[in-house]
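User: Some background: our group keeps a shared notebook of sequences we're curious about, and every so often someone picks one and asks for a predicted structure to add to the entry. Today it's my turn. The entry only has the sequence so far, pasted here. Could you supply the structure so I can complete it?
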Amino acid sequence: MKLYSNEIVFRGHPDKVCDQISDRLLDEYIKNDKNSRCGIETCGGKGIIFITGEVTSSSKVDVEKVVKDTLKDIGYNEEYKVINNLGVQSKDIALGTNNKVLGAGDQGMMFGYATNENEYYLPTAMIILKKLSKEYDELRKKDSRFKSDGKAQITGYYDEDMHLTKIKYFTISYQNTEKERNETDKILKDIATNICDEFNIEIEEFLINPTGRFEIGGFEGDAGLTGRKIVVDAYQSFANVGGGAFSGKDPTKVDRSAAYMARVLAKEILINNDLKWCEVQISYAIGISRPLAIYINSDKGNIEPYDSLYERCKLANIINELDLLNTSYYDKAKFGQID
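Assistant: Of course. Here's the predicted structure to add to the notebook entry:
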């Protein structure tokens, strides 16, 4: 048995808040102009939300309203000054993306992963934390003792197939009013235990707010920045992670679209070849639609990609197959980008 850890942050964590703002703005631009080109970055801290990056779109978006509506939805009740510093997309990048073949909006490598550990084809510990994050979000809406900010981590025992067998430490750090802590801690322990029971996973020990107090949180406790939680957004350390973030980027940015496609392929290949695990890497050059390479690794070794995968992974084909111009990126940003 070996010990291994993975982590998630809750919706109200400052970095994740910035991801959600960037993606909700993206949704608004794409809604009325499917050809919108966006690379939206958000930085927040100490009463200020700073929006920068590039947008070329015919959509008219009230940036300040979208930001404030998003903050309210996440549970941030303070007033924030919103600074809009958005510019337009570089004409040099547009040469590659605004053409007939729809070239990739950036260079880079993206990864997809799947495992046979459960029906979701994702690591069980990852599913547990995603479920906890979603249940925590519902909890804080109903019980004012729970505040938006927080994170959780599982340190578990794994067998030779990297399947979770037991949890040694279940760490939960959650912002709260510090009133009736024994009761609120127990509520979270019960939620986590019930989720783990679904997978027949035992918890040896909880670590709840290990510093002893977590009342100051959100942008008053820490700054936030779009794209700073790419491991949480992807596979929580169970697989390789590409070089780029997801949030704020329209589907011509392969950091996002090709990562989604790599996940689809990893799952398909795992099922079709009766694998224990599968990891797919897809790489692109800016302005070129066809992938430079597709690399497939698994518990049975390397698998040669069939020729049709290259055609399927052309950018325009990915966008069409996954319907990426009719997707709620705001929803994807809430609890991690990979399903």
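Suggested note for the entry: The mean pLDDT is 95. The two ends are 27 Å apart (CA to CA).
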